[in-house]
């Protein structure tokens, strides 16, 4: 029996490093996710409205915004407050990250292992929350 379209999850990746964005996109597409990428936050809300992501992978250090501020914005809007967010960062680690009042559903420090990324995504999509 063929997979129904419902099984394919949409993942929005917001990452300013094009090499990392390309790698994440290729990996997720190879796992049958539908992927859309942004290199800055400027059109994030319009993009979310159009793409309807099941999960957002959000870099903390973006050229035009801090990912933690964007997370706060997402959590404060009715239409985006329930979208799971996996934050990634080259600057911070699990030990020194300060999320503020809004915590993402998960966090990975770069460079991360591909299997860790996929495990974390599958876990978050299944409803798990990683502190």
Automatic annotation (TrEMBL):
Modified residues (4-aspartylphosphate): 59
Any GO BP annotation: phosphorelay signal transduction system
Record keywords: Phosphoprotein
A Pfam family it matches: Response_reg
Residues of the Response regulatory domain: 10-125
PROSITE patterns listed in its UniProt record: RESPONSE_REGULATORY (PS50110)
InterPro entries given in the database record: Bact_response_regulator (IPR050595), CheY-like_superfamily (IPR011006), Sig_transdc_resp-reg_receiver (IPR001789)
SUPFAM superfamilies assigned to the protein according to its UniProt record, in alphabetical order: CheY-like
Entries under PANTHER family matching the protein: RESPONSE REGULATORY DOMAIN-CONTAINING PROTEIN, STRESS RESPONSE REGULATOR PROTEIN 1
Protein name: Twitching motility two-component system response regulator PilG/two-component system alkaline phosphatase synthesis response regulator PhoP
